[in-house]
Amino acid sequence: MSNWKTAWSSGKGVTRARALFAETFGHDAHGVWASPGRVNLIGDHIDYNAGPCLPIALPHRTYVALSPRSDEVTRIITDMDGGQRWEGTLADISPGGVEGWVAYCAGPAWALRRTGIRLSGFDAAVVSCVPVGAGLSSSAAVECAMALALTEVFDHPVGESDKTRAHLAECCVAAENEIAGAPTGGLDQAASLRSRDGHALLLDTSDGSVRHIALPLTEHQLCVLVIDTRASHSLGDGQYGARRSSCEQAATILGLRTLREAADATTTREELDALLSCLPDDLLQRRVRHVVTEIWRVSEFTAALKAGDMNRVGRVMTGSHASLRDDFEVSVAELDTAVESALQAGALGARMTGGGFGGSIVALVDDAKIDTVAAKAIKQARARGLPRPRIHLVTAGASGRRLA
Ligand code: GLA
Fold first, then answer.
1. Which residues form the catalytic set?
2. In this structure, is the dihedral angle defined by the CA atoms of residues 201, 204, 210 and 211, taken in order, positive or negative?
3. For the chain, what percent of residues have pLDDT higher than 90?
4. Does the beta carbon of 354 sit less than 6 angstroms from any atom of ligand 1?
């Protein structure tokens, strides 16, 4: 069995989406739009603390073939989750009105209508090669592809304007929070809609601004590996929300609006320790220590990247994993095993990525060592009785757009 999983080409995604649409609805779709999943390089559990994060858009995308209708009927079919179909009206798409996969597909229609955009019903076929449950933002990819399609067919195309894309990303976050009921921040949707080919996206969630940071991987003969541990991950089971509440509680106790202010007010470990001593218990202290040091690490990572110091980039990634594991407590045995095996096989750095509690790790690896790292991850997982990981060699891709 090959150790490598590859993303679909654009042509393959478009063909599959068009074919599913035509065989389901009996005519050709008006167009096809696609938007990517993401992997976060550094800065996890920071987006809801008004701090910075640094994702890349993946070559793995969700493709939506869509046509508007002249009535209110809405029909959606997907090949995801074993194949599903839903039919209702626009009015059915409301908080509590739809659930499961439909909430992610249909939620953007509700969010766009709320901003005053007039929609009618529509037919849509959704196909995806973003692995589901792998912590690679399959849900944001669906939302963003749908939002791109709907805005264009209903006369509000976003084009390349970052301002308009930022607004669309906010609509998708609202859809995820209020229709799908997942209390996530804005990292995933920004990565899907605002990224640039060959660059990481430095998103400052305090003001929504972005900078595109060149990834000098080829110059350094390095690549980014994503190891999907297949430990199933869900953000709706309360643990993610509990972390978010702890951060809000700690900020309130410290008299701050957000924990970003704690990071801005401290530059040394001593200052951080003094701040932590104002918190009533060890748990809140560890949660805040993760957030503040992770914000520091995003700066250090970005500076090391610009300086071409890739060993330091790797060390910062590995430090981030320890903080997510020990202080924020969002890692699991599968993720720790994958990080450990990647490092043992010579990766410059490795860390869990995204929300955690399962999902994937990301590793920075010399080109010459990728096969060794992949083989070691699989061997180590087998030795510990864990699922066989799926391994993706990824590049920093472009944001979502119309493809046909
Ligand atoms: C999930 C959420 C994001 C972000 C990450 C952790 O992916 O959807 O908003 O909070 O977890 O960084």
1. 188
2. negative
3. 95
4. yes
Instruction: Give the CA distances from residue 94 to residues 51, 67, 70, 178, 345, in Å, rounded to whole numbers and listed in that order.
Output: 30, 21, 20, 8, 49
Q: Cα separation of 297 and 319, whole Å? A: 8
Ligand 1 centroid – CA 342 distance (Å): 23
By three-state DSSP, how is residue 366 classified?
strand
Please tell me if the CB atom of residue 44 comes closer than 6 angstroms to any atom of ligand 1.
Answer: yes
Which one, of 181, 203, 156, 23, lies nearest residue 99 by Cα? 181
The CA-to-CA distance between both ends of the chain, in Å, stands at: 34
Q: Which of 100, 284, 313, 147 is nearest to 219 (CA)?
A: 313
> How far is Cα 266 from Cα 251, in angstroms, rounded to an integer?
14
CA of 183 to the centre of ligand 1 (A): 9
Hey, whose CA ends up nearest to atom 9 of ligand 1? 185
Joined tokens for residue 347: 């990766």
Strands of the sheet with 209-214, listed across from one edge: 52-53, 199-204, 209-214
SS3 (DSSP) at 198: coil
Residue 403 makes CB contacts below 8 A (sequence gap 6+) with 10, 13, 14, 32, 33, 34, 63
pTM more than 0.90: yes
In the prediction, which pLDDT does 371 show? 96
Residue 188 alpha carbon to ligand 1 centre in Å = 7
Contacts for 236 with CB less than 8 Å, ≥ 6 apart? 180, 181, 182
Encoding tokens for residue 59? 């070559």
| DSSP code, position 152 | H
Answer whether 397 contacts ligand 1 (Cβ < 6 A): no
SS3 176: helix
138 lines ligand 1 (CB under 6 A): no
Instruction: Indicate the DSSP class of residue 397.
Output: B
Euclidean distance between CA atoms 367 and 98, whole angstroms: 45
Q: Which domains does the chain have, with CATH numbers?
A: 10-43+50-213+398-402 (3.30.230.10)
Query: Smallest Cα–Cα separation from 117: which of 73, 154, 146, 86?
Result: 154
What residues are paired with 366 via a beta bridge?
A: 222
Between CA 226 and CA 390 the distance in angstroms is 8
- Residue 340's Cβ-side half-sphere holds a number of Cα atoms within 13 Å equal to 12
| Amino acid 82: pLDDT | 83
- pLDDT value at 209 more than 60: yes
Q: Token match 């957030």: residue? A: 291
Distance CA(250)–CA(276), nearest Å, equals: 10
